[in-house]
Write a structure and sequence with these properties.
This protein has helices at residues 2-10, 40-43, 70-76, 94-107, 120-132, 147-155, 167-180, 192-198, 200-209, 224-238, 258-261, 283-293, 302-316, 326-336, 357-361, 374-382, and strands spanning 13-15, 27-29, 66-68, 79-84, 112-116, 135-141, 159-163, 184-186, 215-219, 247-253, 296-300, 344-349. By secondary structure, it is of the alpha/beta class. The chain is globular, with a radius of gyration of 23 Å. It binds ligand F0G.
């Protein structure tokens, strides 16, 4: 009996009940294919709000690579690692919080969700809503979200509402829809379940390095991500897994830097459309993360972000979207001013570069074709 139980726990064993089946009553070994990525809810369940098994909507998010950036390390004067969140199922960091928010919404019987977005939240909500069997509405600034993200929303069958207004207006409207229309769950990061899921990235970083790094550099838009990382590192330390927590270094785009200026931006502008936000919802979370960790929130220019994006792609082989390069742009800037953090530093690359093809095509074009001859191809290579 003990052996049977042990066996049943290791493999899935079921009793065949069918009367037509000759092996009736016998135990049949049913070794199921192992799910390669179990998702952040199953992996970090005891750190998260309660979610019943049958409500879990996962696409195998999390367990993203932590890549050593040997080339850029020397430039920033630190041992630099890249947490490549573009390797999540919808190619951005949003999936960690979305699995928790969507699963909890499903568990409470919600049939629809809504979010405002600069693109990535929308793509993630669309995918996880599809997974959870829920309707999804996304409210976005018209013509201002990157092509790849819009395509994802359409592919997953979510409904896009484009507004003649910016992200901040879209968020206000989405909040009101969540409050006034019953049965529609708001899945922006003002929903605390998003922050809970997102904090698992901090656990992964601490586990991979065995200790938390000295500093974490990341882009700041609506400020949910920096709030989540800080919460995660504090909980990790609080549970006795580490004696310290990293300095949080947040970077906004100069044209959309309300946390640096100390006031909201009416018309935020930056090439990094993901963080074109003038009034971050998690302002307080971001400011306390910087203050309590001895970190900072500063800004970088569009040129600095694009240069960092190119450096990551061409020197490290890692392709992220422009906003995601804000952390590296910030670290390069601090190093050039003799203020680099030093030690072990993790920069979070929040989204994949394929999300925003137009930014690259604006800089480099495909060359004209040549005839399919050896001479023509060799000639082009010599040039
Ligand atoms: N990087 C990327 C690629 C993003 O999409 C975002 C936010 C951020 C950084 C900033 O993170 O808002 O938590 O401070 N994108 C949101 C969206 C606003 O709608 O997709 P944050």
């Amino acid at each position: 009996m003990a052996f049977e139980l042990l066996f049943a726990a290791r493999f899935r064993v079921r009793k065949v009940e069918s009367a037509r089946f000759p092996m009736k009553g016998k135990l049949v070994l049913n070794v199921q294919a192992r799910v390669s990525r179990q998702g952040v809810i199953r992996r970090y369940r005891r750190w998260l709000p309660e979610i019943p098994d049958d409500a879990i909507a996962t696409i195998g998010e999390g367990e993203t690579p932590l890549i050593e950036a040997t080339g850029i390390s020397a430039r920033v004067g630190a041992s630099l690692f890249l947490k490549f969140e573009g390797m999540n199922p919808t190619a951005s960091f949003k999936d960690r919080g979305m699995t928790v928010a969507m699963s909890r919404a499903a568990a409470t019987g919600s049939r629809a969700c809504v979010c405002a977005s600069t693109g990535n939240t929308a793509a993630s909500a669309a995918a996880y809503a599809a997974r959870a069997g829920m309707e999804c509405f996304v409210v976005v600034p018209a013509g201002k979200i990157a092509l790849g993200k819009a395509v994802q929303v359409l592919a997953h069958g979510a409904r896009i509402v484009q507004i003649e207004g910016n992200f901040d207006a879209a968020l206000k409207l989405s909040k009101r829809i969540g409050e006034e229309l019953g049965d529609v769950t708001l899945v922006n990061s003002v929903n605390p379940d998003r922050i809970e899921g997102q904090k698992t990235a901090a656990f992964e970083v601490a586990e991979a390095l065995r200790d938390p790094p000295d500093a974490v550099a990341l882009p700041v838009g609506n400020a949910g991500n920096i709030t989540s990382y800080w919460k995660g590192f504090c909980e990790w330390r609080g549970a006795g897994h580490a004696g310290s927590a990293p300095r949080m270094l947040g970077f906004q785009a100069e044209g959309a830097s309300p946390l640096v200026a100390g006031h909201d931006f009416e018309s935020p502008e930056t090439v990094a459309s993901a963080i074109r936000i003038g009034s971050p919802a998690s302002k307080e979370g971001a400011l306390s993360a910087a203050r309590e960790s001895g970190g900072l929130i500063e800004s970088v220019t569009d040129e600095e972000m694009l240069a960092a994006q190119e450096m990551l792609a061409r020197e490290e082989g890692v392709f992220c979207e422009p906003a995601s390069a804000a952390g590296i742009a910030g670290l390069l800037k601090l190093a050039s001013e003799g203020r680099g953090p030093g030690g072990t530093v993790v920069s979070v690359l929040t989204g994949h570069g394929l999300k925003d093809p137009d930014v690259i095509l604006g800089r480099v074009q495909l060359p004209d074709p040549v005839p399919a001859t050896f001479e023509a191809v060799a000639g082009r290579m010599e040039r």
